[in-house]
Amino acid sequence: MEKVKVIGGGLAGCEAAWYIANMGFKVELYEMRPARSTPAHHTDKLAELVCSNSLRSNELTNAAGLLKEEMRLLGSLIIKKAEENSVPAGAALAVDREKFSCAVTSAIQEHPLIDVCRKEEGHIPSPPVIIATGPLTSDSLSKAISELLGKEYLYFYDAAAPIITGDSIDWNIAFWGSRYNKGDEDYVNLPMTEEEYLEFYHELVNAEVHSLKEFEKPVFFEGCMPIEVMAKRGPKTLLFGPLKPVGIIDPRTGKQPYAVVQLRKENKEGTLFNMVGFQTSLKWPEQKRVFSKIPGLKDPEFVRYGFIHRNTFIMSPKFLQPWLELKATFGLFFAGQITGVEGYIESAASGIVAGVNMVRRLEGKDPIAFPLETVIGSLCHYITSADPKNFQPMKANFGILPPLEEKVKSKKERNQRLAQRSIKILREFIAANELMV
Ligand code: FAD
């Protein structure tokens, strides 16, 4: 029987291996630890959580909670072992990290169809193979991937600006329009007076930042410099950078504002907006506090905070199908953070998508994209259809789901309905496609 190679015994690799083996196919799971470790892992266990012990909210009105429910329906190993090894954390699912990764390791090692090979894979084997080597993929495999895809399509750092919902923008202040009226309708402008700018500037340069880990330090290329670092060069620097007002006229005053923050549509539907040039290491509560000083953003709803960290990921919109298979090669899948999903559960969930579709390939069936109305499906859709020019990793959030047909004012009720819709559609999808759970 054909053996599937899964490279990387992290959250995504374990989910993929588990699904494929439970469907009756043999798996060789390659994990390079302990012989070679990453700068963030500390143990030889599979599915090690490298930082927080929280898998975030368990509530269905939160996108991370809904994603977990979807993963339960799909028979997720990671969620099952997390629940068996949970610690009290209110509405969140948090785990005893040691017990959790020991439990996943035992389940994988004891599976009769999974063979765990403790070896670094330095090249891309021929299909069937799933590459799930994570944000800290080893140098040798990174080199092989960049040779396969082109080195300009493999990223090693991630400097992301915050993304906010369109619903949280004050449209009495914000206005559409591009610099010099170039007809690009994808930008929204938030004008500032001198006084507003100076207040914002003062808060920005004095805000608290995350301290970067040693391996994350050499990040600051000019093009992705954190906004607070740029601001510290002098009070006017931002006026020649991300807050440049030149060529932008406020239709309400007919004048050029003192400074302008620009927001760019993050998705085709225009429900999410990226704060252009606002990549930042500010702590999350500080981002909320400082960025709410911007006129028009009094109460911003963040679907992703800005961050800067080491992260290996590929240009998925160019290379991957929504079922995470390389467009150019049948049977070669990517899964986990290396695809541009961001977070523990997002990575694990993408492992299920790759596993399901690997099995379909082995059975001679066509691959399937998961429904857009589900968080798992919309994440895969997002990372494979985002604008390649501005591609940045994405966490689970409700903004990437298609909106409800009806307008619902209360956010809680809207999220509840989105969750009900997702669960109903996913159940039908599982039954229609005979996904084993
Ligand atoms: P991983 O879990 O990293 O698994 C990849 C595995 O592949 C590793 O075990 C690695 O040893 C192995 N490997 C790498 N190269 C090779 C090779 N060539 N051959 C064989 N094996 C190989 N997300 C959160 O939700 N919460 C957090 O608090 C959080 N903190 C993070 C902190 C840091 C420092 C980093 C880097 C990331 C963090 N993330 C966090 C993001 C991300 O969700 C996790 O990194 C997650 O573990 C990604 O899952 P994965 O399966 O894609 O990769």
UniProtKB/TrEMBL annotation:
Source species, domain of life: Bacteria
GO CC annotations, alphabetized: cytosol
Coiled coil: none
Molecular function terms, GO-annotated: flavin adenine dinucleotide binding; tRNA (uracil(54)-C5)-methyltransferase activity, 5,10-methylenetetrahydrofolate-dependent
Domain spans labelled MnmG N-terminal: 3-366
Cofactor(s) it depends on: FAD
Record-linked SUPFAM superfamilies: FAD/NAD(P)-binding domain
Binding locations of FAD: G8, G9, G10, L11, A12, G13
Record has NADP as a keyword: yes
Intracellular or extracellular location(s): Cytoplasm
Annotated function: Catalyzes the folate-dependent formation of 5-methyl-uridine at position 54 (M-5-U54) in all tRNAs.
Protein name in the entry: Methylenetetrahydrofolate--tRNA-(uracil-5-)-methyltransferase TrmFO
Species for this entry: Thermosediminibacter litoriperuensis
Lineage of producing organism: Bacteria, Bacillati, Bacillota, Clostridia, Thermosediminibacterales
